[in-house]
Amino acid sequence: MYLSPVHFGNPRTVLRILIFLLLSFGFAEAQTIRQQMGIPLNDSLLNKTHAERYKLLHGFYDNNLVLPQLDTVVVEQVLADVGRFAKKHDDQDLVRELRYMRLVVQILHTDRMKRIRLLEHRFEEIKKSGKSWEVFLYSWLLGSQLLDTRGKADMGLYLLTDASETLHRGYRHPIERYLNYFSAQPIIHIMT
């Protein structure tokens, strides 16, 4: 059976239906990508400390295999959606978290030396922010990259030590287990 334009009514109506379907598909794709990225609903991220938010976003931060395979345009759309939500609700810490999340996505798509240059540049900015979670994360991330880099291993060790000292001063973070801070602590006490 052939359906003529008469069946659909006005050509503008047909155009509106097509636009609606295209936008719906784009929204559905972004939602699917969001799930693959491990990003929960915006409301759950609002007005949380970084450590609380980090636990909610563990699917994102522990997603090093899937993130590089995702369409970067759609990934940016998802992050932009969260960013608009954060700005609308005046959650500046979430806005700063998104900046870090964008950095994570960016460094997964770059080679080691570009990654280090990018992290070094951002680290200088972050030191001025005074935010413990940012200084800790950037110290840890840059330090771990520099540790295996010829001529920069001493700086990498310094930054990892600085991140460990941040923990020693009472700051807690879900990734502290990677620094072996707590497992090394009894050994230090035995030696002193």
Low-confidence stretches: 23-28, 181-192
Helical element count?
11
Helix content: over 70%
Mean pLDDT, to the nearest integer, reads 78
* Class derived from helix and strand content: mainly alpha
Radius of gyration from CA coordinates:
22 Å
CA-based shape: elongated
| Distance between the ends | 88 Å
The helix/strand order is: HHHHHHHHHHH
Q: Strand share of the residues?
A: under 5%
Reported for the largest beta sheet, the result is: none
Count of beta strands: 0
What does this protein structure show overall?
It is a single chain. The protein is mostly helical and 192 residues long. It has helices at 5-8, 11-37, 42-45, 50-56, 58-61, 72-88, 92-108, 112-129, 132-146, 153-168, 181-191. Helix 6 packs antiparallel against helix 7 (92-108), helix 8 packs antiparallel against helix 9 (132-146) and helix 9 (132-146) packs antiparallel against helix 10.
Fold blueprint:
Elements: H1 5-8, H2 11-37, H3 42-45, H4 50-56, H5 58-61, H6 72-88, H7 92-108, H8 112-129, H9 132-146, H10 153-168, H11 181-191
Helix pairs in contact: 2-6, 6-7, 7-8, 8-9, 9-10
In short:
This protein has 11 helices and no strands.
Structural key phrases:
single chain, mainly alpha, 192 residues
